Amino acid sequence: MSQLALRGRRVLVTRAAHQAGKLSDGLRALGAEPVEVPVLEIGPPASFAPLDAALRQLSSYHWLILTSANTVRAVMDRVRLLAVPVGGARVAAVGAATARAAADAGLRVALVPEAYVAESLVESLAAQVSGHRLLLARAEVARDVIPDALRTAGAIVDVVDAYRNAMPAGAPEQLQRVLAEGIDAATFTSSSSVTHLADAAQAAGLLWPFTGVKAVSIGPITSATLREQGWEPAAEAKPYDIAGLVAAVARVLAQPGVSRSGSVQ
Question: Which domain covers residue 127, as residue numbers?
Fold first, then answer.
């Protein structure tokens, strides 16, 4: 594929502001103009009490499951504040980025699934968790794919909220302005990015899904959420990571017949 295969394309990046860089850089390297409208910002959960209580007894768990780099940061912030040891439980990370964040924080990661999705993590753990206690730290209002499947495999799973995804106050107005200028594709890196963008569109009085705009998803769970929201993904990343997402955008927008600024000829 040409180095500037996406020249002139405008691609919506919905990640939290502190996480958008890698995706935007990847799109820019192919000539695209990344248009950043953060629809997520990271905040504290409604209460830290369940997380703190679990971390104080972390040694009683066989596994600590970390679902994102945001989870790692939130958990380690509480670990440092509480001054609790983290050496007891084995750590499972849902993907490479989460594993890197955990390693950078001083955690020893024992398991990273081959595919960076919840189902692959469950598949990797299922055969070895029957009767074991697992601690799953995640965002508030996250899907129950992982805990439900692990309980079916016989594990005892405690789920605690480590952080909360909130929509930035200025997102609806910013989104309205960006769509008026035209975009060719919208990228989605999580189910929360889908639901928050839909909420921002509703708040801005915008038609959903966006007419003539290609939705590109990072993986199956995000794709399922897009479909639930009435937007069929034009492509899904493989592998399920940022590099795969950039490649998926390139596949979609380099197709013959896809015109500039979101309309299809």
Answer: 43-166
State how many domains the chain has. 2
Which pLDDT score, from 0 to 100, does residue 81 have? 97
Pair 132, 63: CB distance under 8 Å: yes
The torsion defined by the Cα of 67, 113, 123 and 75, in degrees rounded to 10, comes to -20
* Domain termination residue (choose one: 121, 150, 166): 166
Query: What is the model's pLDDT at position 121?
Result: 82
How far is Cα 201 from Cα 191, in angstroms, rounded to an integer?
16
Instruction: Give me 202's structure tokens.
Output: 């509703």
If one counts every other C-beta atom within 10 angstroms of the C-beta of residue 140, the result is 16
Q: Using only C-alpha atoms, what is the Rg of the chain?
A: 19
Residue 160: strand, helix, or coil: strand
- Map tokens 């670990």 to a residue: 79
Q: Is the pLDDT of residue 173 over 70?
A: yes
Torsions phi, psi for 162 (to 5 deg): -100, -25
Residue 248 CB-half CA count within 13 A: 26
Query: Residue 164 has which token pair?
Result: 């909360």
> How many C-beta atoms lie closer than 10 Å to residue 47's C-beta?
10
Do 226 and 233 contact (CB within 8 A), yes or no? yes
The string of pLDDT tens digits covering residues 178-235 is 999 999 999 999 888 999 999 999 999 999 999 999 999 998 889 999 999 999 999 9
Q: Which of these three, 144, 166, 188, is where a domain ends?
A: 166
Q: What's the CATH code of the domain at 19?
A: 3.40.50.10090
